[in-house]
């Protein structure tokens, strides 16, 4: 996202900042909608939709000469991330017991942060070598990952681990 902002810097810092604000808004503003969608439609369908939105955003961002289109593209990249991250987190919560969730979500957050940092470095090399087109291909590739994961989840249901709340109290009848 920061490199995308750098790609827009020739248009001015205010424009670049506004576009990045739209991107970050796309990441977090749709969270309640993404949660409801994941619960009502299905988590895997929401992940598939997120992958498509992310890919659309990457394709739109190629036109950095049209600021509004680049802004819409980065908003879509953020919204696509949201539409994959929220249901993905719900899948993790569904598949684990209450006692396991803290460790699992902490590990998940660390992996996501490491992946984000790695992709930022890779994006720097792509931008230096291929410009905005390189960033767009990186975005399309990232969009394909949740699409593939969502497709795989449609064919493999994860059973939720039992928790203490699921335990049956012993009967006093004997």
Rg is: 19 Å
Strand content: under 5%
Query: From the structure provided, what is the oligomeric state, counting identical versus distinct chains?
Result: single chain
Fraction of helical residues: over 70%
Topology pattern, helix = H, strand = E: HHHHHHH
Shape: globular
C-alpha end-to-end distance: 64 Å
By secondary-structure content and strand pairing, the structural class works out as mainly alpha
Please outline the major beta sheet.
none
Total strand count, please? 0
Number of helices: 7
Taking pLDDT < 50 over at least 5 consecutive residues as the criterion, the unreliable ranges are none
Defining traits:
mainly alpha; single chain
In short:
This protein is 78% helix and 0% strand. The protein has helices at residues 2-7, 13-28, 31-40, 43-61, 67-94, 98-130, 132-154. α2 (13-28) packs parallel to α5, α4 runs antiparallel to α5 (67-94) and α4 runs antiparallel to α7.
